[in-house]
Amino acid sequence: MKVGIPRALLHYYYYPFFKTLFDELNIETIVSNPTTKEIMNKGIEHSVAEICVPMKVFSGHVAELVDEVDYIFIPRMISISKYEYFCPKFMGLPDMIRYTIPGVKEKIVSPKIDVADENIAKAKYYGEFKKKLGVKEKELQKALKIAYGKWNDFRNYSKEGHTLVEALDGFDQNHYEVSNTKNDEIITIGLLGYVYNIYDEYVSMNIIEKLKDLKIRVVTFEMLDEHALTKSLTDLKKVPFWTFSNKLLGAGYCFYEDENIDGIVHITAFGCGPDSMIGKILELDSDQYKKPFMTIRVDEHSGENHLQTRIEAFADMIKRKKINLGGGTVNENNISLYGNTACI
Amino acid sequence: MKITFPYMGTPLVYKKLVEMLGHEPITPNKPTQRIIEQGVKNSPEFACFPMKVIMGSYIDALERGAEVILSSGGNGPCRAGFYGQMHEKILNSLGYNPKFIILDSIHRDFKGFIKNFKMITQNVSLCQLYSIFKFLHKMSSDLDQLEMQLQTKRAYEINRVECNKVWEKIQSIFDKTYIKKDLIKAKEKCQILIDDINIRKIPENEKIRIGIVGEIYAVMESSINMKMEELLGSFGCEVRRAHYLSHWIEDNVVPKIFSKSKDGEICKKGQKYIEVAIGGHAQQTIGHIVDYKEQGFDGIVHLMPFACLPELVSQSIIPKMSNEIGIPVLTIALDEQMGVANNTTRIEAFIDIIRNSKEKKYRAS
Ligand code: SF4
Ligand code: SF4
After folding, report:
1. So what's the pLDDT on residue A344?
2. A64 lines ligand 1 (CB under 6 A)
3. Each residue of B10-34: pLDDT tens digit?
4. What is the distance in angstroms between the Cα of A60 and the nearest Cα belonging to chain B?
5. Hey, is the C-beta of B90 within 8 angstroms of any chain A C-beta?
6. Residues of chain A with pLDDT under 50
7. Which of A29, A129, A154, A162 could form a disulfide linkage to A135, CB 3.0–4.6 angstroms apart?
8. Does the distance separating the beta carbons of A88 and B48 come in below 8 Å?
9. Alpha carbon of A224 to ligand 2 centroid (Å)
10. Given pLDDT bands bounded at 50, 70 and 90, which one contains residue B74?
11. What does the alpha-carbon distance between residue B57 and residue B28 come to, in Å, rounded to a whole number?
12. Least Cα separation, residue B30 to chain A (angstroms)
């Protein structure tokens, strides 16, 4: 029995958890290959035209896997914190896939995650494992516990300031490198974006590496403490409903407040509704904080050169300001990059 | 207080509510091209279309002197629940500072509902409030009943636009009622108006019934949906909508034990295809398609606003699902540039296909 895991959406955030879970249950898994143009095209072929890029990518990965495996793992993410939900497309994802990709209908295994405290390791959500994969309750509980432990190791490592790429590496090698802080970076950028956009190298055109090559330190929301993320939202009268969008919005405010962060780059996928809201909120509040903020919109036909030019220009502008001001924070911002939302 | 509210279908009932609570209503204008453009200009690009249009309506009403904006929160975990905050932030940045009063569903946030409701009900006693509510509830269901008759008759009217004219008259008659007794009289009077409409006789087997499903604003507000009901009527189709104001009141305001709400039943019909409530009305959209099929309707027009998150899910599911249960569905996406001519052609073609296959089936039997 083989279970296929699409390398898309929250894969980048939960992989250590689910991988350990299946390993402990002695179930063979196949993870789809990193996104390629072919996968993207398959996704486009099986999706409605207006849907956001990450959903198309996901469909592509499912289409890529479906013939090779007996089951496809598509968790239904409903909620992982009180009063918050996932973007509606996540909540309806298994339904959508079932009705759009040929041959997948009977193969979907879809635990329903609906918890209030980020602890996704409760056996009651994994009923389908028992029904479809013949797993026993006891085994399941044991495996979930181990998986949760591994996932926490991975998350903790990330919170020490490592990107998910580094943390996933650590997980794969079963050894997390102790960080050796080399400090040749001149500026620090807060990079806002969903894990499935930033860490999918095809979608983001590997922006993290590009920034690092420019000697820029990158901070992302996964590196911040969850409490800090929610705390920074307490000023808003009513927070939006979507968990990961809230994490980004919270991170955005943390970045605004943190004087070590010199500028913010928001990566957003074409067609993302929630991002259009949080982007607008951050934009409206940017005047108050006077920090450069750039939005980069990625779509299914992105072009690399343009991205390179834009981040170079952005970094240059920040560097120049820093030098002019003799270091420290930028406290004056007459070249506002605000609203600079060209499509690349 | 000068209070305005979003425009969705006939504004009569909201207007009455504001008036009877002792405030001055600033009735929003029906969204025009200019209002829509204003809204689009001042909203994020990928905000859903209803949010943009309502943005435009607010700006228009504020320019006409509104001080307070009264609105309902959204249905389930979707953006509408966050509309108010978003609108407020943007309006503030444009230099408007209205007071926002947002009524979330009483079933979701009882305390919040009461707290906000108190702000606008200072002038009336609890007892009065109850009777105002009962009155408006009755008014909205009367209006809906009358409108449904028009939705049927419009398909066969001999003088084009007669039904529209009657509908205008009905609204102005109801506008003048304030007590139950008048309401009953008004209804009788309106019934006569409807009965007097001249219609063609069409044999039962040639009648075509279309259900309009989708996101609530797109379904209810004719200025953004190419006047879908009239359009279908002019092609000779009887029409029903998935959303009526009186149903919304049953679903969201009337205490559950007294409510005649069908929402639960409809959602259940949708569950086979969308297992959980995903926000907005996606599950209802699918549920209504199943329901209309069971009622013997001939086809469905599915309306989704541009960038509507939940309806993208239902849109993805519909092609296969409608095939499975055997009812044709035409999905139409609405935005500020809706190609009216192009869509009209699509609808006409859609109706032609339905009519032809119905005829064939009839002849075969
Ligand atoms: S949050 Fe945005 S990018 Fe993510 S699934 Fe929803 S619409 Fe798509
Ligand atoms: S259901 Fe659709 S139109 Fe309504 S708030 Fe949600 S995204 Fe917007």
Report:
1. 35
2. no
3. 888 889 989 999 999 999 899 999 9
4. 15
5. yes
6. 327-344
7. A129
8. no
9. 30
10. low
11. 6
12. 26
Q: Which of B:45-64 have CB within 8 Å of A?
A: 45-48
The band of B153, judged by pLDDT with boundaries at 50, 70 and 90, is very high
Per cent of chain B over pLDDT 90 is 61
Give the closest residue to A84 by CA, choosing from A305, A245, A258: A245
pLDDT at A339: 36
Q: Does A88 touch chain B (CB under 8 A)?
A: yes
- Quote the minimal CA–CA distance from B222 to chain A in Å: 23
Minimum-distance CB partner of A89 among B44, B309, B320? B309
pLDDT at B322 over 50: yes
Are B316 and A236 within 8 A, CB to CB?
no
Is the Cα torsion angle A324, A330, A336, A340 positive or negative in sign?
Answer: positive
Tokens of B342: 């192009």
pLDDT at residue B191, rounded to an integer? 97
Residue B80 forms contact with A (CB below 8 Å): no
Burial A174-196 (b: 16+ CB within 10 A, else e): eebeeeeeeeeebbbbbbbbbbb
pTM: 0.90
Q: Looking at chain A, which runs of residues are DSSP E strands? A: 2-5, 28-31, 71-73, 76-79, 108-109, 112-114, 187-192, 216-220, 263-269, 293-298
- Please state, in angstroms and rounded to a whole number, the distance separating the CA atoms of residues B355 and B363: 12
**A342 CA → ligand 1 middle, Å:** 19
- How much is the mean pLDDT over chain B? 89
* pLDDT given for residue A328 in this prediction: 42
What sign has the CA pseudo-torsion B217, B220, B223, B224?
positive
What's the gap in Å between A149 CA and the centre of ligand 2? 38
> Which of B48, B130, B74 is CA-nearest to residue B305?
B48
pLDDT tens-digit map of A256-272: 999 899 999 999 998 89
| Min distance A80 CA to chain B CA atoms (Å) | 14
CB A268 within 8 A of CB B73: no
Q: Which residues, in sequence order, are CB contacts of A190 under 8 Å at separation 6+?
A: A219, A220, A251, A252, A254, A255, A258, A261, A263, A264, A265
Q: Identify the residue whose C-alpha is closest to ligand 2 atom 2.
A: B308
Chain B neighbors of A276, CB-CB under 8 A: 44-47, 307
Instruction: Give the closest ligand to the alpha carbon of residue A242.
Output: 1
Atom of ligand 2 nearest to the CA of B305: 3
- Give A264: exposed, middle or buried? Use CB within 10 Å, 0-12, 13-18, 19+: buried
* Long-range contacts of residues B283-288, Cβ cutoff 8 Å, at least 24 apart: B284/B213, B284/B242, B285/B213, B285/B214, B285/B215, B285/B242, B285/B311, B285/B314, B286/B314, B286/B317, B286/B318, B286/B321, B288/B211, B288/B213, B288/B242
Give the nearest ligand 1 atom to B309 CA.
7
- Ligand 1 mutation target, pool A9, A10, A47, A52, most atoms within 8 A of CB: A52
Query: What is the per-residue pLDDT across B251-295, written as a single tens digit (0 to 9) for each?
Result: 877 777 777 788 889 999 999 999 998 888 899 999 999 999 999
pLDDT tens track for B223-235: 899 999 999 999 9
In chain B, which ranges are continuous DSSP H helix?
A: 12-20, 33-41, 49-63, 80-93, 110-120, 126-153, 162-175, 180-195, 216-220, 228-234, 245-252, 263-271, 282-294, 309-325, 340-364
- Whether the pLDDT of residue B167 is over 70: the answer is yes
| pLDDT value at residue B79 | 57
pLDDT for B83-105, tens place per residue? 777 888 899 999 999 988 877 66
Distance from Cα A52 to the centre of ligand 1, integer Å: 6
Token digits for A334?
């007459």
